[in-house]
Thiol-disulfide isomerase or thioredoxin
Amino acid sequence: MKNFIQSCFLELLCLFRKAKKSIRSQLHPISMQYFHVGGWLISLRGTRSISHTDRRVFHDQRECISLSKTKLQLGHLIVCTFLLLGVVPKSSSQVAWSPEADFPKKSDLPRGGDSRPDISQLKDYGLVDSYLDSGAGEGEGLPQTAPVTVFSDQMEYHAGDHESDLKSFDSSQNHPLAPERAEEAAYPGAANHPGREEYSTPALPGDSSVVFIELPSDHAPDTLWLSYWPEFLKEQRALTPGITLPLTPTQGNFFEGNAGFKRYSVVFPAFSSPISFSLRNKRNYLFRYWTLNPGTQIRIRVDLEKGRMLFMGPSAPFFQAQYALTRMAEEQQFQAHPLMVTTDPDRILSDSLTDSLYQTSLALPNAVFPPMQFLLPSSPPDDLLDSLLRQSPSSDPAFKWIAGLGNDLSSVEKYQLEQKAWGEILLRTLPKMNLGRESLSQSEYREKFESWISAIPLPDSQWIDPVLLTGLNELILLRTQVRDQSLLEGTADLSSVLRERILGIYLLDNYKRLERGRDSLVRRVRENIESPWIADLIGDLDSKNAKGSPFYSGELLGLEGEPVSLEAFRGKSLVLTFWISGCKFCMKYYQRTLKPVFEHFRHRSDVQFIAINADRSPNSWKENALSDTYSHPDMLQLHEDSGQGILSYYKISAFPQKILLGPEFTIEQSTQTQYSPAELIRKIEEMTGNSANQLETNPK
C-alpha cells in the first residue's frame, strides 16, 4: 500500500516521460477490481506480481479509457488522498440490469428462419453410394435443401416479435455488421444489431437466464449464432426453425479474468420451463440442443487451443454433465465400424485407387481402425440385426454414469440427461435398424424387436429433449411399419404430449409431398391436436398452400436488378419452379421433366413459366440461370434471397419445388413431388382447362 501511494504521487510530480513510465510499471493493478466513480478508477482488491506481457496488455487496455490527461492526474490525486485518509468510496454507478419491457414469457408460435436440411440417416455412419442418390426424377427424387446460415443449413433471424427477446450484455450502441456477417445475417435489422457498450456488473433478474461464452481472441469470430427453441418439433422451416440471433463479442480483460479471450453474452427472457439452445460459428457447432433451465447462470470458456471446455457459475455442474454426455456419444460413434450402403460393393472397389485405399485400411490394426462394413439397402446382414437387438438399450454405460453423478445435480437435471442419453442411443441405432425393416417384420426378428423397444421409456412430461424427440419420431415410424399400422394407430399408446408431437412432425414434414388424401389427413391430425402452438403451425402452412388459397403478392428481383411483381401475370396460368445453385436434384429434374414440359407449352400465351432462384446472394445466380442447367434461359428468371419473401411465406427450404397457379392468382398445387413430363403436362392442361370452363360459365 505504501509503495502504491508513493508511486501515485511520484508519477504525478515527475516531469520526465520515461521516468513516469518506469514508475507506472511498478504498479501492480492487474488483479485488482476497478469500478467507475465520476470517470476515474478505484481499486478494491490486492495486488500481485505480473509479467512484462501482462503489464503491457493492461496498459494497452487502460489507454483505451477516454480520460483526459488532466482528469487522469486528478483521479490519481483523489485516489491517493482517499487512500491516505483510509477512505474507500462506494460506487454510485452500478446498474440494475433487467430485460426490456414487453418480453414475451413464452412464444405461442415458434418463429425464425430457415431450417437445416434433413440429413441422410446414415450420414454419420459412413458413406452412401452415389447410385442411391441418383434416383431423382420421375416420382422419386429427394429434395435438396439450400445451403444457408444455420449448420449452415438455414436458420436466419427474423426481426419483429422476438427482436428484443435476447440481449447481449454489451448492447447500448448500434454497430454495423462486417460484410461477411451482414451477408450471413440476412435479416432486416442486421445493420442495427446491438453491439458493444461499456459494461458494469448487472443485477441479474430473478428468473432470467444468462450465458457467457469465451473464445481465444486469435480464433474468435466476429459473430456467433445462437438459436433457441421455446417449443421444438424439428429444426426445419416448416416446423420449428427456432429463434436465431447473432452474438458479437467484446474483448476480455484482466478485471474479468479473461484477458486474451473475447466474450459473447446473451440474456434470455424469463421462462418457466426448460428450453433448448445451440451455438455455432457459421457451420460449426460449439454445442447443439443443450438444455437451459430457468434461472441458469453459466460462463463457458471454449479453449480451442487446448481442445476443451471449461464451465463456471451456479449451473456449471449441469453443463459439465451435458458436455461429458455429448463427448461420450461422440466417442461411441467414433469407435463404430464405418459403413457404406451400396447396391454393388464390387463396383465401388473396381477403381484401382479406391481398392488400394481399402486394402491399406484393412492392413491397419482392427482394434484401432475397425474395418468398413458394406451394407445392401433394405438387406443388412443378419449378424448386424442380431447384434443390435441382442443388447438391451438400457445397458448403455451412459445411464450408469448419470446415476453416479453426485448431489450437485438435481433429480430434474438427471432426468434431462437421461432423456438426452436415450435420444443419442436411438439416433445411433435406428439408422442401421431401418435398413432391415423388412426383416424386422418377420417372426424371427419381430419378437426381438418388440422386446428391444419395450425397454425404451416413452416420456409423458411436457418437456421432451430435442435429441430424444428426434429419435422417438424415427422409432415410432419404424414401429408402425413393422406392425403394419397407420400412424394414428401406431401413436395410440403414447401420451398426449408425445402423440401430438409425432403427428405434428409427420404432417408438417410431409405436407408438400402429400397429394391424395392431404385434406383428410390434415383434418384428422388437427382433431388430435390440443396444443395451440402445434395447431397454429399446421393452420398457417395449410392456409397458404391449400388449393384455392390467395397467392403471395410481393416482389422479386429480376436479372437486371429490377423489382418484379408477379401480380403482372394475373390472368395467366403460372408454373413456378424453385431451385438453388449446386442442387443436383434441381439439375436432374429440369433436364428430365421441366425442360420438355416447357418446350411443350412455350408457344402458349396463357401459360407462363417462372424460375425462382433461392441462393443466399443474388450475385451468383445469374450465370446459372441462363446456362440451361437448372432452368430454360427463355423462362422468366427471378431471384429471392434465401429465407426471405416468397420463400419465407411458403416455408420453402427444400429444392426443387414448384407451385402451380390458376389465372385467378390462387394456388392450384404447392408440391415437392417430382412428376414425369407427361404427368406435369396433364396437370397444367387440367389447370388451364378448368380455368377456361370457369371463365365461360362466369363472365365476370
Summary: The chain has a mean pLDDT of 75.
